Amino acid sequence: MRIIFYSALVAFLIDQISKVAILFALDLPTLGHYDVFPPLLRFHMAWNYGINLGLFSEHGAAARWVLIGLSVVISVAIVIWALRSKLTTYGFLSCGLLVGGALGNALDRVIYGAVVDFLNMSCCGINNPYAFNLADVLIFAGAIGLAIFPTDAKDGVT
Questions:
Q1: How far apart are CA 138 and CA 14, in angstroms?
Q2: 10 Å Cβ neighbour count for 19?
Q3: What percentage of residues in the chain have a pLDDT greater than 90?
Q4: What is the distance between the alpha carbons of residues 124 and 74, in angstroms, rounded to a whole number?
Q5: Do 15 and 138 touch, CB atoms closer than 8 A?
Q6: What Cα–Cα distance (Å) separates residue 73 from each residue in 21, 82, 98?
Q7: What is the secondary structure of 52-100 as a DSSP string?
Q8: Tens digit of pLDDT for each residue in 57-103?
Q9: Annotated domain spans of the chain
């Protein structure tokens, strides 16, 4: 349980600190974009009112609160599942990354009304129009970790 809690806390803090730095220290909402290592990495301000790729963003305030609620319910369900499963240490860590990222995006919706997206990566002549954030990376890493590190392992932590 401690591994989940601490990894979720670290993931949540990394995400929120990065967003505070982008919003207030760099003032990306005013700048619009900032080239970090063009064209590979660019900060590009985007407010995501929907889910992945902005889907369902036209549904307004009702969708916002539904998405917040879903994030919390799914996070709680994942923790309950993890505690009932025999996961490896890396499985518990992955669970924490997923939960911390999900709650980071949920907090964005509470505070700002939308998720703060700012990372944009393009390569090799392909211009990626979409932005994401560190919470998205942590959610993805946690989900992949849960797929890679199986349950019921001999060295599982209970």
A1: 10
A2: 24
A3: 74
A4: 37
A5: yes
A6: 28, 14, 13
A7: GGGTTGGGHHHHHHHHHHHHHHHHHHHHHHHHHS-B-HHHHHHHHHHHH
A8: 555 677 889 999 999 999 999 999 999 998 999 999 999 999 999 99
A9: 2-125+132-148
Residues 6+ positions from 26 with CB-CB distance below 8 Å: 34, 43
Which 3 state secondary structure label does DSSP give 127?
A: coil
What's the pTM?
0.88
Tell the residue number behind the tokens 């499985």, with chain if given. Answer: 91
Q: How many angstroms separate the CA atoms of 7 and 92, rounded? A: 8
**Joined tokens for residue 97:** 């990354």
| Average pLDDT of the residues in 138-151 | 92
- Gap between the Cα atoms of 107 and 98, Å rounded: 14
Residues tagged active-site: 117, 136
